[in-house]
Specification:
alpha+beta; single chain; six-stranded mixed sheet; about 45% helix; about 20% strand; 2 domains
Length: about 170
Amino acid sequence: MPKTSNKNSSNFVKYRDEFDANNLSGEWINNIYVVKSYGYYPIFIYSAGQWYENENRYSRSTAKQMTQCSYGIRAEAIKKDNQFMQDLMNGKGEKSTKTDALAGMKAFLILGDLMNDKKESQEDKLKYKERIVFATMKSQIPDWQKPSDWDSLPTEEKMKRLNKLQTI
């Protein structure tokens, strides 16, 4: 693992390269990139296209490390508590976050079915479901794109696929 200074660690963090600095390190653990202070305290984590920042209280030295290593990523980071960071680092947190998002998506799809007026057109119902599903996918996978052939599919096929998501 390359040695660097805390001051120069931000380039390693930005490009998610492993490094070792003065009581600061970055490494890949369980397919996520973890920046740790003092070898155990996760301060930043990159997982599934998203940066997370530990929002819990920390020492002055850790606060300084966070500033030094976070140029270029801190504005993108979602603040989470230490338990979330520990769970994510141990392979638990990401799954529960995605499960919660999918459960919320399913609830909104069902609510839409209940609330939609019988007079609404299939296209209006489709637009509602697309907004819910596509927004959920984007929130969980920032670089997500709808299928390339989506716009060429018939409305019935699109509805069939979107309705199938309610059964997952």
